[in-house]
Amino acid sequence: MTSENLSLILTSLGPIVLAAIAGTIPLALISFAVGLAIAVAVALMRLSKVRIVSALARFYVSVVRGTPLLVQLFVIFYGLPSIGLTIDPWPSAIAAFSINVGGYAAEIVRAAILSVPKGQWEAAHVIGMSRRLALRRIILPQAARVSVPPLSNTFISLVKDTSLASLILVTELFRQTQEIAAFSGEFMTLYLEAALVYWVICLGLSAAQNRLERRLDRYVAH
Amino acid sequence: MSRTEPLLTVRGLAKSFGATPVLRSIDLDVPAGTVTTLIGPSGSGKTTLLRCLNGLEVPEAGTVTVSGGPSVDFGDAVSQRRLAALRDCSAMVFQHYNLFPHKTVLDNVIEGPVIVQRRPRPEAVAEATALLERVGLGEKRDAYPFSLSGGQQQRVGIVRALALKPRLLLFDEPTSALDPELVGDVLSLMRELAAEGWTMVVATHELQFAREVANEVLFMDGGVIVERGRRRRCSAARTRSARGASCSG
Ligand SMILES: Nc1ncnc2c1ncn2[C@@H]1O[C@H](COP(=O)(O)OP(=O)(O)OP(=O)(O)O)[C@@H](O)[C@H]1O
Ligand SMILES: [Mg+2]
């Protein structure tokens, strides 16, 4: 490695990390939070006894999982304006990622709810709880525990997927890298550098995931 | 006292799963302050009967009446509110305890009183603590269920039921998931409750217990009550006098 390369890495690291902090991470966090809210709602709809409600939820999940994220992003950012609905890059990205996470996480949440033993519902009913109250106080907290590992994986995927937002002009980690690369012409060096930054972020998230799982495990029998 | 009007009256209760009838026209009277035990081979319908009594299972026909409470005719469409009213009259103790694993022992016990019955928290905590101490689990108040033995978990299950102050206690084979050496503790607690005058319906395989403690033993087979062993009534005496005072007939 030449010393020019090294100094390029050092000077570009600042802007790239900054773009991660100002772009990638908030984009992932906000989309995940909104996506999770969508997921819980869709999972509950999916479990509803009302046919049409559960069919709607199934349709949503099927469309989200059956189409590429990049296409979803483009439909929202480049497609909607042609029917008179123009959305800025950031809100477009958040909308696309939230809808996407909502579809994947809905299945995780649904499976987690179903994994709570039936006896827990019955015990909740016996102490006088309605379905709603039982869900909120007894079932969802237990489902939350079960869903931490798969949801963590969803979040880590999302962090990496936010790089797609570079294609709709959101200044995040990868777009920043592309700009510097185009300017300097050192594509290999800069793209590897971007990869390294993503990797470090994901390593940190995996470590956090492990800690969280151990913490939640403390109160559950095996 | 309760001789004239039973606390719980069941008439013509029928339930099937798919095409299989599981309960056929069950009649049952449970006077206040008495213990009724249900015995019978596996699959005879004991669990299903108990679950029908508190609406966990909805029978197709028959009536369940709680004196001074709801009377539900399952022949008609039954609203969720009626079912809830029926459920509020009783509390069930499960074979597998079904404690809430994400809550401490204390929180398991006060969940119903505080969250559902909306009683003041300090009062519920004081009562729960007293009940837990009574069953020898005062120190386990802040423990999580997984750290308790089966016998301890079942005693918490019983305390959770008592804390609701139900009129009727339903037990579904409360000791059959326990190691043999732990059965005694739970049975003796149930004897105490019987002696205190709680109205109880108990499905059990503990024949000794069923005969000793019950005012009436019902033998079920194939979804019907094939035999009723009634004993001299002595609940009033038992309520007054020391626990377990011999009142066999
Ligand atoms: N949810 C269900 N769906 C279908 N069949 C059921 C269901 N619950 C119970 N049954 C059937 O109903 C019959 C009575 O079951 P139940 O559990 O009431 O018997 P039990 O007397 O409690 O037996 P055990 O002593 O084994 O607990 C059995 O044949 C059982 O297979
Ligand atoms: Mg049974």
Automatic annotation (TrEMBL), chain A:
Its main location: membrane. It is found in: Cell membrane. Residues 21-209 form the ABC transmembrane type-1 domain. It is a multi-pass membrane protein. InterPro entries: AA_ABC_transptr_permease_3TM, ArtM/GltK/GlnP/TcyL/YhdX-like, MetI-like, MetI-like_sf. NCBIfam families: HEQRo_perm_3TM. It comes from the Bacteria. This is ABC transmembrane type-1 domain-containing protein. Gene3D superfamilies: MetI-like. Keywords: Amino-acid transport, Cell membrane, Membrane, Transmembrane, Transmembrane helix, Transport. The chain crosses the membrane at residues 29-47, 59-80, 190-208. SUPFAM superfamilies: MetI-like. PROSITE patterns: ABC_TM1. Belongs to the binding-protein-dependent transport system permease family.
From TrEMBL, chain B:
Its main location: membrane. Residues 8-247 form the ABC transporter domain. It is found in: Cell membrane. Pfam families: ABC_tran (PF00005). InterPro entries: AAA+_ATPase (IPR003593), ABC_ATPase_HisP-typ (IPR030679), ABC_transporter-like_ATP-bd (IPR003439), ABC_transporter-like_CS (IPR017871), MetN_ABC_transporter-like (IPR050086), P-loop_NTPase (IPR027417). Keywords: ATP-binding, Cell membrane, Membrane, Nucleotide-binding, Transport. It is a peripheral membrane protein. One of its GO terms (molecular function) is ATP binding. This is Polar amino acid ABC transporter ATP-binding protein. The lineage of its organism: Bacteria, Bacillati, Actinomycetota, Actinomycetes, Micrococcales.
